[in-house]
Design brief:
The complex is a heterotrimer. Chain A is an alpha/beta fold. Chain A has two domains: 231 residues, Rossmann fold (3-Layer(aba) Sandwich); 165 residues, Rossmann fold, CATH 3.40.50. Helices cover 48% and strands 17% of the residues of chain A. In chain A, the strands form four sheets. A five-stranded parallel β-sheet of chain A has the order 2-1-3-4-5, with helices on both faces. In chain A, strands 7-6-8-9 form a four-stranded parallel β-sheet, sandwiched between helices. Chain A has a four-stranded mixed β-sheet with strand order 10-11-15-16. Chain A is globular and about 65 Å long. Chain B has twelve helices and two strands. In chain B, strands 1-2 form a two-stranded antiparallel ribbon. In chain B, a hairpin with a 2-residue loop joins strand 1 and strand 2. Chain B is globular and about 60 Å long. Chain C has 14 helices and no strands. The chains are: A alpha/beta, B mainly alpha, C mainly alpha. Chains A and B meet through helix 1, helix 3, strand 7, helix 9 and helix 10 of A and helix 2, helix 5 and helix 11 of B.
């Protein structure tokens, strides 16, 4: 039941976006002649494996566009979104990003691509010099590495290294309290899985040096069956297990681990569990899984955050995802920057964005700041907690300490020769 | 590489039992898919590149039936039957039109089927991954055998798949239909000269292959997450199984599937980052020494 | 004869290049050059695949691995070494040829269906290698940070127009070379092994050797297509080596036709136009593409150029048979 109504909404939203695109396509010159419109091009993933996340990004953007336009638009101009599906292929993302600027006449880019697509769009932004805001690429190097960083590109998105610092600090706290010294990891065998696991272990050991990693399992990306990895982990008898599997792979892992009663034998730390898509998909969510927050409407526990999640849910008949809040926040940054610069010119926006602080429901203290030195956001809500089988799923999130995050991040950058 | 861990595991009966169960689960599910693939190839001489899609359909049908009825038995039967019917429709409407045509055409028609079926699933059940959940009767603690861990659900799964394997073998060897099918694989002209409707046989074999894949999908649905396009990875593994076992040989599919299952189970202990590599190396070794596979006929 | 045909090819190529060079002048805007660059990448790839499929009767379902290999080898050489672009390009071709020789030596002995399978399996192996070998390839995130393009011989590929001209030249030269291969003695031998390998064997043709050479040559041109693609997106990504690239290549050949040399080129243009419009209109592009494939595979039973040429031939035949209707 829920699925049919959801897809109907999705289709309607798609048609609306399409209609906007089509009219604009039919008369781009007229529209531009009026000069009362600012066009934002958005390549994102609307089909394939992670389409649900791309869809939730688009939903959040359209919701914000409606709000901003009702309030007078960006510096007096009405926003028109041109949203295109890259199918998650980087070469398509690059082509679409170029087309959005060169033929659709978009003024700004909102890059809703994940990892590899995000890097491809970043190269287009480098080539064309257009203002680009990345919203879904969590790979730290995108903004940390000076070779990749651009004066005209910004990231409004959580970052892998932040997650690892908070995760390591939280895990060390639990480990000290419960005496968990023998650890195992299980991560998909690709860049995200390797990097995130290595960083997590690094910070876990930083906060608790006597931790020992006794075994590591590396299933393939999107592997359907984890049985052999689960049994291997059982044999090793660790006290705690870390995993950065995500979405459908994580639910499959939890389901398969449950029938081996794995969770009764070790503490599970699953960074990507606390996202509604995952939480609601698991039929028998075991209690007591430690998880980082992706997006949870009760963290931060503010009326604004709950109101935003409820509004989103009322409109789209599903909960927002971590991609939703990131895209929503990105639109807030566009809005605030246009207000301060009193312009929608990409160059002027790029001048005011560094150091800009916006009020959004997703900040630890109700605000998020675009850090000037490396064009990435800080102070967003980030924390860890344990699951319960029903709403609110993770009742008590322990927030990360941003002072500590920033300090350790600076050391990490130095160690990687990024500064 | 961690040969010490592998040696320690083999020395420990508990580890052997646990990993061997794991190998059987992976292997037997793979066998169900590969058996259909190999049967279809043996009789129809078509590489069913769309075979993974029937595995996917089986899982989704089972999911839908389990959601509405709450009965896992019904979900299993419905998943297999639904996939069989879908396979029959695809065969009669589309694939039958390219019999005897070039392999290129057959591959393309199957490729088109994969694209279309994936998108249809996406339209009906959404982009999101789904999880069916473990049926209540199997939500029980695992058994301990010789220090190894064996979940009851997996025992059930292996038993069902084994029963199907035995039934399939007997049906092919003993029944009239089985004999006709084997004859059709050897010499289709002779079979049709005997007045047997080869179109009917082809349709039945394709439907049976689809139903076997659907059964695998339905059996896996409680523990694997459902996504549009989930059939592709199992398709590749089944290809490897059929190449190792020999195209057209059901016994070969069983041996090949269990071989892959055990490589995965013990490889993850000994060579966690190189299990895939071992699978490919075994395949290449078989191809170089016996190009038609371990149980393949020389006809190729 | 041969020399005259070669001259015609070269002249035709020069004319085609002149037309391509005029495109940015004739059509304003920046979209047309981008489109042509993508056509060059996929066109080279698809035409090279047709060397195997159409001329050699070898249905490879893993040809995309060489497309990906070209993109990665070239990108890595430019990022990690101080080689000039022509040197890196030449080395990339050598690498692709070497890899193709090893893989081909295993594959070309196999009969058609096994050949299709095993090439696909090798493609999956290369793809999973790219994903897993994070230190070298950047894993799933691809080669990041752009591909540097130092100026060589006065050519600056960082300039979009010069890049466009270079890619256009690569396409034209690649097509001319492949056409020469097809028209050569080797091309005839290759077709003979396709039509009747046994007979070719009796006539003293080393079938395995001929097929292996075709496999390596096709890999080299596919790899050039990959290099063009890596320059277009200024990076290389695992998707370039994924099986879907091979699937697209098959589809392109099917669309355009495999019995005419330029069939795959026409197919490329159709597929890219189709892709660009369909993804604009719907997220269910799978259904649309699937139906189009079925139309060609079951409806026409051949590619567009093949279909057109056959119809023309048919009409001529009927015109000869019944002149009053002509």
């Amino acid at each position: 039941m829920a699925t049919t109504s959801r897809s109907a909404i999705g289709r309607r939203a798609a048609l609306a976006a399409l209609g906007a695109g089509a009219t604009a396509l039919a008369a781009p010159r007229i529209v531009r002649a009026q000069d009362k419109v600012v066009r934002i091009g958005m390549p994102t993933i609307l089909s394939g494996r992670v389409a649900q996340l791309g869809n939730s990004s688009r939903n959040a953007v359209l919701m914000e566009v409606e709000r901003i336009n009702a309030a007078g638009g960006l510096a007096g101009r009405r926003i028109e979104m041109v949203i295109r599906d890259s199918k998650g292929q980087p070469q398509e993302a690059a082509r679409i990003a170029r087309e959005l600027i060169n033929t659709e006449g978009c003024d700004l880019l909102l890059d809703g691509e994940a990892s590899s697509g995000g890097f491809a769009v970043n190269e287009v932004a480098r080539d064309l010099g257009v203002l680009c805001v990345h919203t879904n690429s969590e790979t730290s190097s995108l903004t940390a590495d000076p070779k990749l960083r651009l004066p005209n590109a910004f990231r409004v998105c959580r970052q892998g290294v932040h997650d690892s610092i908070v995760g390591g600090s939280y895990a060390a706290g639990v480990a000290k309290a419960k005496g968990l010294k023998r650890w195992a990891t299980c991560a998909p065998d690709y860049a995200y899985g390797r990097d995130t696991t290595a960083q997590y272990v690094e910070y876990l050991k930083h906060f608790m040096p006597d931790v020992e990693i006794i075994t590591q399992a590396w299933p393939k990306l999107f592997q359907p069956d984890y049985t052999e990895n689960i049994t291997k982990l059982l044999q090793a008898k660790p006290q705690a297990l870390y995993t950065c599997l995500w979405a459908g792979d994580l639910t499959a892992f939890v389901d398969q681990a449950s029938i081996y009663a794995l969770l009764s034998q070790m503490e599970l730390f699953a960074v990507n569990m606390a996202d509604y898509t995952t939480l609601t998909a698991v039929k028998h969510l075991p209690p007591g899984i430690h998880s980082g927050n992706r997006y949870i409407k009760t963290f931060p526990k503010t009326p604004q955050n709950a109101a935003w999640a409820d509004a989103y849910r009322a409109r789209y008949k599903e909960y927002p995802t971590t991609w939703s809040w990131q895209n929503s926040a990105a639109m807030h940054f566009f809005e605030a920057a246009a207000k301060r610069a009193n312009s929608v010119d990409g160059k002027k926006l790029a001048e005011v964005l560094p150091g800009l602080t916006v009020e959004v429901p997703f900040g630890t203290d109700g605000t998020i700041t675009m850090r000037g030195e490396d064009h990435t956001i800080i102070n967003y809500a980030i924390g860890w907690g344990t699951t319960i089988p029903t709403e609110p799923y993770v009742p008590d999130m322990h927030p990360g300490d941003w002072k500590q995050i920033v300090e350790l991040e600076a050391e990490w950058k130095k160690a990687n020769h990024y500064t | 590489m961690d040969l010490a861990a592998l040696a320690a595991c083999i020395a420990n009966p508990g580890c052997v039992v646990t990993q061997a169960t794991s190998g059987f689960i992976v292997g037997m599910l793979l066998f169900l898919v590969a058996a259909g693939l190999t049967l279809i190839f043996g009789v129809l001489k078509v590489i069913n590149f769309a075979h993974g899609a029937f595995y996917m359909l089986g899982a989704y049908f089972a999911f839908a039936l389990y959601q509405s009825s709450g009965s896992f038995a019904l979900a299993l039967i419905g998943g297999a039957a639904g996939s069989g019917v879908a396979a029959l429709a695809c065969e009669r409407l589309l694939i039958s039109r390219v019999y005897g045509g070039s392999v290129l055409m057959q591959l393309l028609v199957c490729y088109a089927l994969v694209l279309i079926l994936d998108d249809v699933v996406r339209m009906v059940w959404g982009n999101d991954f789904l999880s069916m959940g473990m049926p209540a009767q199997f939500q029980v603690p695992p058994l301990f055998v010789a220090g190894g861990v064996v979940p009851p659900f997996y025992l059930f799964l292996i038993a069902v798949a084994l029963a199907i394997a035995v039934a399939l073998g007997l049906a092919l060897a003993r029944t009239r239909l089985g004999k006709v099918v084997r004859a059709a694989a050897h010499n289709p002209q002779m079979v049709s000269a005997l007045g047997i409707n080869t179109g009917l046989i082809y349709g039945l074999v394709f439907a049976l292959g689809g139903a076997l894949a659907g059964m695998a999908g339905a059996l896996a649905a409680p523990v694997r997450s459902l996504t549009p396009g989930m059939g592709f990875s199992i398709l590749i593994d089944s290809f490897i199984v059929t190449v190792i076992g020999g195209m057209g040989s059901v016994a070969g599919a069983l041996v090949g599937a269990l071989l892959i299952g055990f490589i995965r189970a013990f490889g993850s202990v000994g060579f966690p980052l190189f299990t895939d590599g071992i699978m490919y190396m075994v395949m290449v070794a078989v191809l170089v020494t016996r190009p038609t596979g371990l149980f393949g006929r020389n006809a190729g | 004869m041969v020399r005259r045909a070669a001259l015609a090819d070269v002249l035709g190529g020069a004319a085609a290049f002149a037309v391509l060079a005029a495109v940015p002048l004739l059509i304003g805007g920046k979209a047309a050059p981008d489109f042509v660059i993508r056509c060059a990448a996929y066109g080279l790839f698809a035409t090279s695949l047709n060397l195997l499929v159409g001329y050699g009767g070898m249905i490879s379902f893993g040809h995309g691995m060489f497309f990906g290999l070209g993109a990665y080898a070239f990108g890595l050489l430019m990022q990690r070494t101080a080689l000039s672009i022509p040197a890196a390009f030449a080395l990339t071709i050598l690498i692709a040829a070497a890899v193709a020789t090893v893989i081909g030596a295993i594959c070309v002995r196999l009969k058609e269906i096994y050949f299709a399978f095993v090439t696909l399996a090798f493609q999956m192996l290369i793809h999973s290698l790219i994903i897993s070998w994070v230190g070298l390839t950047g894993g799933d995130q691809g080669l990041r940070g752009g591909i540097p393009r130092p100026v060589f011989l006065g050519v600056d590929l960082a300039n979009r127009i010069q890049l466009y001209l270079a890619c256009g030249a690569a396409l034209v030269i690649g097509l001319v070379l492949m056409h020469r291969i097809v028209a050569s003695q080797f091309g005839y031998t290759l077709r003979m092994t396709r039509d009747n390998a046994e007979r070719a064997g009796y006539l003293g043709v080393d079938v395995v050797r001929v097929r292996l050479i075709a496999f390596v040559l096709a890999a080299v041109f596919a790899c050039v297509g990959g290099v063009v693609m890596s320059l277009f997106v200024s990076g290389a990504y695992p998707d370039f080596a994924d099986w879907t690239v091979s699937g697209d290549g098959m589809f392109i050949n099917m669309l355009g036709g495999i019995n005419v040399f330029l069939g795959p080129m026409l197919g490329t243009v159709i597929l890219l136009l189709l892709n660009d419009t369909v993804t604009r209109l719907t997220e269910h592009d799978g259904i649309v593409l699937g139906v189009v494939i079925l139309f060609f595979a079951i409806g026409l039973r051949k590619g567009l150029l093949d279909f057109v040429l056959d119809r023309i031939a048919e009409r001529r035949a009927t015109a000869v048979a019944s002149p009053e209707r002509g």
